[in-house]
Q: What sequence folds into this?
């Protein structure tokens, strides 16, 4: 049996490095969001965690990775819109420790979600 060519060895090693970095990204960015207090930073860290998952999926299942990327992007846009509404409702503050009175605005969010759901379907 012949040894692998230098190019195939390079491709294999870069795939392993990508997979290892993606796993590290998932396990650092995801739990790191639990210790943040800014709403936008929490959403950004969850996006980073999902990008690690997408890059792992891309190695074996590129179509599934693209589907996950596009659905993630669509729902992340909706999440950022609602986060912007929450930030605006609490006097332009991103600190989640100040969101104890968010129940006042929750009905507005429910109506917005219902409206978006009706538009989608």
A:
């Amino acid at each position: 049996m012949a040894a692998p060519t230098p190019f195939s060895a390079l491709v294999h090693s870069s795939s392993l490095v990508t997979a290892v970095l993606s796993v590290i990204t998932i396990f650092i960015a995801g739990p790191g969001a639990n210790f943040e207090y800014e709403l936008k930073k929490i959403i950004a860290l969850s996006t980073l965690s999902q990008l690690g998952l997408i890059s792992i999926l891309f190695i074996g299942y590129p179509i599934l990775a693209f589907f996950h990327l596009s659905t993630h992007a669509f729902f992340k846009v909706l999440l950022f819109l609602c986060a912007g509404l929450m930030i605006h409702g609490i006097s332009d503050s991103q600190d989640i420790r100040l969101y104890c009175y968010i129940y006042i605005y929750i009905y507005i969010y429910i109506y917005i979600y219902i409206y978006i759901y009706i538009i989608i379907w």
Observations:
- The chain has a mean pLDDT of 79.
- Helices lie at 6-32, 39-60, 62-89, 106-120.
- The chain is about 75% helix and 0% strand.
- The two ends are 57 Å apart (CA to CA).
